[in-house]
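Worked example

This section walks through a single chain of length 192. The input is the sequence exactly as stored; nothing has been trimmed or padded.
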Amino acid sequence: MRANSVVRIYFCILFWRCLFIATKELQINEEIRDKEVRVITDDGEQLGIMSASDALKAAAYRSLDLVKIAPQAVPPVCKIMDYGKYRFDQQKREKEAKKNQKVIEIKEIQLTLNIDTHDIETKVNHAIRFLKAGNKVKVSIRFRGREMVHPERGLEIMQSFADACSEYGNVEKAAKLENRTMLMFLAAKSAK
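Given that input, the structure is written out below as tokens.
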């Protein structure tokens, strides 16, 4: 009777552990319902093909979890490992990969059709600063009222702006009129 209660308590602990390990994508312990599975230990030793209940007992004997790592194989491959440590290591790798990603922001510069030369120089300096930082620049001209009659003037301003920024950035998307707004995108030149 004593051995039976110890087994019952151990399986309750395993069940509790299954409930509180967050965001699982793999089947572990009692979730594995296959008749036969191929079992591998945490150090890579193959235990062979056995029933799922025997594999679960082998994992319980080692105080580890039984994790189905290859469900598409015939029979499915299960590994005896510490699932909590596996998830921790996986989250750590994901966090490290996210840290190494470079986030590129899109900065917007708005121009008008009647912009003066000094104002355009100031806007070009802003765009160059953004491009040096590795960001993309969205240049827009909003046409108001009767300005829609002269879209070619907007194209001239966009072209001169792109030429002024050509040393630091390339035109990613050429100037295009959409409704009452003309848009152009500049991307930073890659460092050579």
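What to look for: Confidence is low (pLDDT under 50) at residues 18-23.
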